[in-house]
């Protein structure tokens, strides 16, 4: 019995030692070591796609901003006053031809004045004919004693005065005809009616504005460009203009301003635009002046992170990413020019850069 009591503690101790030896052997096995290393390795933060910076030829452009305006805008007003506006024949947006009737004023007493002037002209012409005949007869008596020299001079003077009265009467007729013609408001050129101020039945005054006309329907873009860059621009250069809320249109430089604004230090560039239904005077527009072509290193815009006013990309370095500061230049479509900070062929993260920080471990998608 005593021998049995001694054996039980001995067996318990031996079993404990055996279990400890087995645990140590398991910890030292290759499988456990691999599992432990795998659990200790950092897990990839994100699966990314790889893209390389590409060198190529890009158009060289100069940016500008400004408003679209009418090439020339004519103000059509009343030449005479005191007449009532009886008819308006066009409205805003109508295309008109040169000489087309736009509005009509009441002639009032102008027709009566013209008739009186014509009658006065007939009377003056009759008196002039009589005076002229008398003068011709007197001329035949010069040198004789039938008429005194004073009487002859009076007859010749009366003839000249009668001819002057005829000329004055003709001038009055022409003036009355001109005043009557002013009751017909016509278009001074081809174009589009851009504004109508006139109101039917209103009593107009001399010089009062009735319509505004975009001459020939032409529009232009008046772009503001830094004065230091104006020397690069020449008449005839192609411009790509993007109006707000309208499709892009092509234009050509018509004129470069000879001076620069002293406040903004910008100069105006006048660009003729091709007609388009979506174009409207007054729209704000951005545009690019095509200056030629130059070499450029480019990346997709999605590869560039903008933060705190600077631009960054993430270089792929094995299974990690490294933040790299870069300088950005031109943009074309969905790509952007990298002016410095990167070399051609460098692999960077294509998209999702907003979720990465320097040193992150990533998995690069094939």
Tell me what you see in this structure.
The chain has 4 helices and 22 strands. The two termini are 75 Å apart. It has helices spanning 2-27, 30-40, 110-140, 149-181, and strands at residues 46-48, 50-52, 54-70, 73-77, 83-88, 95-96, 101-105, 184-186, 191-196, 203-204, 209-215, 219-226, 238-243, 249-256, 266-273, 284-300, 305-307, 310-317, 320-332, 335-340, 347-349, 362-364. The longest helix is centred in the middle third of the chain and has 33 residues, at 149-181. The model is unreliable at 1-11, 22-27 and 30-41 (pLDDT under 50). Helix content is 28%, strand content 39%. The chain is rod-shaped, with a radius of gyration of 47 Å. A hairpin with a 5-residue loop joins strand 13 (238-243) and strand 14. It folds into 4 domains: 2-40; 46-58 and 294-364, conserved putative lor/sdh protein from methanococcus maripaludis s2 fold (Beta Barrel); 63-71 and 218-293, Beta Barrel (Elongation Factor Tu (Ef-tu), domain 3); 74-213, Beta Barrel (OB fold (Dihydrolipoamide Acetyltransferase, E2P)), CATH 2.40.50. Helix 3 (110-140) packs antiparallel against helix 4 (149-181). It has 366 residues and is an alpha+beta fold. The protein has a 6-stranded antiparallel barrel with strand order 3-12-15-14-13-16.
């Amino acid at each position: 019995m005593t021998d049995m009591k001694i054996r039980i503690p001995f067996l318990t101790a031996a079993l404990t030692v055996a279990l400890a030896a087995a645990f140590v052997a398991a910890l030292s096995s290759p499988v456990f070591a691999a599992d432990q290393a795998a659990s200790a390795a950092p897990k990839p933060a994100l699966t990314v796609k790889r893209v390389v910076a590409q060198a190529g030829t890009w158009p060289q452009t100069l940016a500008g901003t400004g408003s679209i305006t009418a090439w020339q805008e004519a103000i059509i007003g009343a030449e005479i006053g005191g007449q009532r506006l009886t008819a308006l024949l066009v409205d805003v947006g109508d295309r008109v031809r040169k000489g087309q009737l736009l509005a009509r004023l009441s002639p009032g007493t102008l027709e009566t004045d013209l008739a009186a002037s014509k009658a006065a002209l007939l009377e003056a012409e009759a008196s002039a004919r009589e005076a002229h005949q008398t003068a011709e007869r007197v001329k035949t008596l010069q040198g004789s004693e039938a008429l005194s020299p004073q009487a002859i001079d009076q007859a010749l003077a009366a003839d000249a005065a009668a001819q002057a009265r005829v000329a004055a009467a003709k001038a009055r007729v022409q003036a009355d005809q001109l005043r009557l013609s002013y009751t017909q408001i016509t278009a001074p050129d081809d174009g589009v009616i851009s504004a109508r101020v006139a109101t039917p039945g209103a009593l107009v005054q001399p010089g009062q504005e009735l319509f505004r006309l975009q001459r020939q329907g032409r529009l232009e873009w008046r772009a503001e460009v830094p004065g230091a860059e104006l020397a690069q621009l020449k008449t005839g250069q192609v411009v790509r203009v993007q109006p707000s809320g309208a499709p892009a249109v092509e234009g050509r430089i018509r004129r470069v301003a000879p001076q620069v604004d002293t406040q903004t230090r910008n100069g105006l560039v006048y660009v003729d635009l091709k007609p388009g239904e979506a174009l409207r005077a007054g729209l704000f527009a951005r545009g690019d002046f095509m200056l030629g072509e130059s070499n450029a290193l480019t990346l997709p815009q999605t590869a560039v992170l903008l933060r705190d006013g600077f631009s960054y990309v993430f270089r792929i370095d094995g299974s990690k990413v490294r933040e790299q500061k870069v300088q950005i230049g031109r943009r074309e479509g969905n790509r952007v020019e990298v002016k410095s900070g990167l070399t051609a062929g460098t692999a960077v993260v294509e998209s999702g850069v907003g979720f990465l920080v320097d040193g992150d471990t990533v998995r690069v998608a094939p």
